[in-house]
């Protein structure tokens, strides 16, 4: 057959572009889009053999996986869809890929609802939470608490440089939450008035470390100093299987134009602009990790990870 990379369908490439540009954001949304894109590859492929179709699906997975190195929900989605595609005919492989992609997306939708119920149990009527960045898992917890009749307030950090906190502020306000939007550097000032720091995660390592939007780690350290509990809301698709064998989580570096416009940068002279997208919060600064399967102390997350993934860390789209 032709080079399988050349046979990746346009829907996969569009999805990869949207994930890479952050038009599609949030771990659950990224995972859902990736699984749907692989389903499109299976449905639209004109491969004539089962081996050719498997090669195309692996090529599509590589295209998607290259977009966001820190968003572990993405490879977890790809791993799920590509598992056990050993059929001997094109139809068998196609049917298996479509079925697994559809199953993954349906389970994903159910998982966030379950997670929201678990997280809502930590929130009491009258509580104030502080958020960082934008997380659909965090929003699910708040939405479930509001549905239970609890009145909540939120202090929302803007989360520079992309200001994802503005999205969070708007969505929380739409739920009826009393929202105060603050610049990132004002977080410590408001921690005495906060009952919980509630953050999401791009991925969670086997030791319970939380990899999330840059600024999360500093917020967690300040919260511990103030005695404010830090809760991470994260679906199990965000667990990082590779860290079971000591793999280091990659931290994505983004364009300097997100931090400063080219015209202003030119006036600074020989100055390098660094724009790390994420940081790592050690487990000692995290009080609980809330998932759709319950809440766990960070040191116990490795047990859940082994239950879900075993010791396998293989990525079936990687060329051997």
UniProtKB/TrEMBL annotation:
The top EC class, named as a word, is isomerase
Under the heading InterPro entries, the entry gives: IF-2B-related, IF_2B-like_C, Initiation_fac_2B_a/b/d, M1Pi_N, NagB/RpiA_transferase-like, R15Pi
Q: What is its EC number?
A: 5.3.1.29
The source's superkingdom equals Archaea
Query: Which positions in this protein are listed as binding substrate?
Result: 25-28, 68, 212-213, 238
Q: Active site at which residues?
A: 133 (proton acceptor), 202 (proton donor)
The family database entries (SUPFAM superfamilies) matched by this protein are listed as: NagB/RpiA/CoA transferase-like
Catalytic activity, reaction form? alpha-D-ribose 1,5-bisphosphate = D-ribulose 1,5-bisphosphate
Q: Which Pfam families match?
A: IF-2B (PF01008)
Q: What else does UniProt say about it?
A: Reaction proceeds via a cis-phosphoenolate intermediate.
Enumerate the NCBIfam families for this protein: eIF-2B_rel (TIGR00524), ribulose_e2b2 (TIGR00511)
The role this protein plays is: Catalyzes the isomerization of ribose 1,5-bisphosphate (R15P) to ribulose 1,5-bisphosphate (RuBP).
Instruction: Write the protein's name.
Output: Ribose 1,5-bisphosphate isomerase
